[in-house]
């Protein structure tokens, strides 16, 4: 051990990242009192009111107290714009600042993973892992259960304008359904949310904080993991920074990277696992040439058409009124209801941009508000936003470190709209949005297209408007993907183990080979659940018990 490294002790497991997956992993691994578990989180504790009041996302996203404030490189597909790329800077990770939407995706997503050769990842394989931790407000059935840690409830507020949009979707043939989480999410419904009696229910509140009293579980916050140390082809320690000083934690079992799709590949690269030529150029010793590290980045790009309306309330003008804001606060204090319980989007619509798709390939997040971008103020007129995203983009981007400095932000290149298919779906989605808004149930509110504007009509004009309007919906995945042995870009095997390295796994959204058809937070929680089960099974095999 180097004299410059302070010894931080020895542990059976070191979990890097207390985000959506890492909180589950820490909970499950420490349930056995024989396992010494250390959790290293770069963010802080969730001691801020806006981490817990649902509408707090308006204050948390774009705030350096709660957001790592990453920014993409300039994106050619977005007319040269660089986008803010929010990631949660707190225990619970992005589940502490996200939209709180409970969404599993489609059965076909996971069956597609299985068809890639990833045994154990089909829909029927992963459903029990979703169910294990679920605490759903609905009566238990084949798709839902109660009693788990991950609370799921219905929204505690309704808006007339959203009811009308749902009626409009029905008028154009999109059925009203009760539940997006049965394997087929095509239709319209109100999103189920990760809340408990009107408060945000983050992964930290669900899985981590209730078990921090376990004597075998240690949480350290405000630490930045530099690298994983390998010896004889196996992970044996983790080096991290705290207060500018290097510490080292020894590992007798496994290191679990659960730092997310931006940070996990960065840690792998600083550890010498990545594209050999890239690492050598930064003076990093190559432990294993793995060209897939940091590649395969996928994200849901949302296009945000805005429609002014008349004769109906929206949050824009409600929030502008001091009197109405006072009523909102009172309603929340007394009943835990009203606009302060709002997720960014309440109404969801899943549909197809064209008949060529076997399942819904578009997701609408309908919001009774409008703004230029998250972190900005609301517009001074009543409006709703019909955000729409391509659920299965074919564009692929990357996340890579720029240097070996662990506190330097990485280079994030989503490469949005880099394929002809993604461009076509984007244009079709705006046209479909216009068709939705033109339906009779919305006519009485006289919707007027504010962005991009009805004058934008040709395919070229629409594509340029997409480049101006579109932004991330905060769903980065795939940067350390699972894959079969003969896939040169597969970083992990089907058991989430880093190929060619013992005692090291990546258990978070980085592992997804393809993005799921919906919001990605609860699939990340599921990956944490399944990953922990795989680790414990391996431990039992290793110890012969």
Describe the protein.
This protein is of the alpha/beta class. Helix content is 26%, strand content 21%. It is built from 13 helices and 25 strands. The strands form seven sheets. Strands 7, 16, 17, 18, 19, 20, 23 and 24 form an eight-stranded antiparallel sheet that branches. β14, α8 and β15 form a beta-alpha-beta unit. α1 (20-30) runs parallel beside α13 (521-543) and α11 (420-437) packs across α12 (459-469). The chain is globular.
Q: How many strand elements?
A: 25
Radius of gyration of CA atoms, rounded to a whole number: 23 Å
Instruction: State the helicity in percent bands.
Output: 25-40%
Mean pLDDT score: 95
- Give the distance, in angstroms, between the N- and C-terminal Cα atoms: 33 Å
Query: Count of helices?
Result: 13
Major beta sheet, specifics?
A: 8 strands, antiparallel
Regions with pLDDT < 50 over 5+ consecutive residues? none
- Tell me, briefly, the overall form: globular
Strand content: 15-25%
Structural class, by secondary structure, is alpha/beta
Write the layout of secondary structure elements.
Elements: E1 6-16, H1 20-30, E2 37-41, H2 57-60, E3 70-71, E4 84-85, H3 107-115, H4 123-132, E5 134-136, E6 150-152, H5 160-171, E7 187-190, E8 195-196, E9 199-200, H6 203-208, E10 217-221, E11 224-231, E12 234-242, E13 245-257, H7 260-270, E14 273-274, H8 276-281, E15 288-289, E16 301-303, E17 306-308, H9 315-320, H10 322-335, E18 347-351, E19 362-367, E20 383-390, E21 398-400, E22 411-413, H11 420-437, E23 448-451, H12 459-469, E24 471-472, E25 504-506, H13 521-543
Parallel strand pairs: 1-2, 1-13, 2-10, 5-6, 13-25, 14-15
Antiparallel strand pairs: 3-4, 7-18, 8-9, 11-12, 12-13, 16-20, 16-24, 17-20, 17-23, 18-19, 19-20, 21-22
């Amino acid at each position: 051990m180097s004299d410059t490294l302070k010894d931080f002790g020895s542990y059976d497991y070191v979990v890097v990242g207390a985000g959506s997956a890492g909180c589950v992993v820490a909970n499950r691994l420490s349930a056995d009192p024989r396992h010494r578990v250390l959790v290293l989180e770069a963010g802080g504790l969730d001691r801020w009111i806006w981490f817990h009041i649902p509408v707090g996302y308006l204050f948390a996203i774009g705030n350096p107290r709660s957001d790592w404030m990453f920014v993409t490189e300039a994106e050619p597909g977005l007319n040269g714009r660089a986008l803010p790329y929010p990631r949660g800077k707190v225990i619970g990770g992005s589940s502490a600042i996200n939209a709180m939407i409970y969404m599993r995706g489609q059965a076909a997503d996971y069956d597609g993973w299985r068809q890639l050769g990833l045994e154990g990842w089909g829909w029927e394989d992963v459903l029990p892992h979703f169910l294990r931790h679920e605490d759903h407000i609905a009566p238990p059935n084949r798709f839902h259960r109660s009693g788990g840690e991950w609370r799921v409830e219905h929204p505690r507020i309704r808006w007339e304008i959203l009811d009308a949009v749902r009626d409009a979707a029905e008028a154009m043939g999109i059925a009203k359904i009760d539940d997006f989480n049965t394997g087929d999410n095509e239709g319209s419904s109100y999103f189920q949310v990760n809340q408990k009696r009107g408060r945000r229910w983050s992964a930290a509140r669900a899985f981590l904080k209730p078990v921090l009293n376990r004597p075998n579980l240690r949480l350290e916050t405000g630490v930045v993991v530099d690298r994983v140390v390998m010896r004889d082809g196996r992970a044996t320690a983790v080096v991290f920074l705290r207060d500018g000083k290097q510490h080292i934690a020894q590992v007798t079992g496994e290191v679990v990277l659960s730092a997310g799709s931006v940070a996990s590949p960065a840690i792998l690269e600083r550890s010498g696992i990545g594209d050999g030529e890239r690492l050598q150029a930064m003076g990093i010793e190559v432990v294993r040439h793995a060209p897939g590290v940091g590649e395969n980045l996928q994200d849901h790009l949302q296009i945000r058409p805005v429609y002014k309306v008349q004769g109906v309330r929206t949050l824009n003008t409600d929030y502008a009124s001091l009197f109405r804001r006072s009523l909102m606060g009172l309603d929340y204090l007394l009943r835990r209801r009203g606009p302060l319980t709002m997720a960014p989007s309440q109404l969801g619509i899943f549909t197809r941009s064209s008949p060529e798709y076997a399942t819904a390939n578009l997701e609408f997040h309908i919001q009774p508000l409008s703004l230029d971008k998250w972190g900005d103020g609301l517009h001074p007129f009543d409006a709703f936003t019909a955000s729409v995203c391509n659920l299965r983009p074919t564009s692929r981007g990357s996340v890579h470190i720029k240097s070996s400095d662990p506190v330097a932000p990485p280079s994030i290149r989503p490469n949005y709209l880099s394929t002809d298919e993604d461009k076509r779906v984007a244009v079709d989605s705006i046209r479909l949005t216009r068709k939705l808004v033109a339906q009779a149930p919305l006519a009485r509110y006289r919707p007027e297209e504010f962005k991009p504007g009805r004058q934008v009509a040709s395919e070229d004009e629409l594509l340029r408007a997409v480049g101006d309007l579109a932004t991330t919906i905060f769903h980065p995945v795939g940067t350390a993907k699972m894959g079969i042995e003969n896939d040169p870009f597969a970083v992990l095997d089907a058991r989430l183990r880093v190929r060619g390295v013992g005692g090291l796994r990546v258990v978070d959204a980085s592992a997804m080979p393809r993005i799921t058809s919906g919001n990605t937070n609860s699939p990340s929680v599921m990956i944490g659940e399944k990953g922990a089960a795989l680790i414990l099974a391996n431990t039992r095999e290793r110890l012969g018990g």
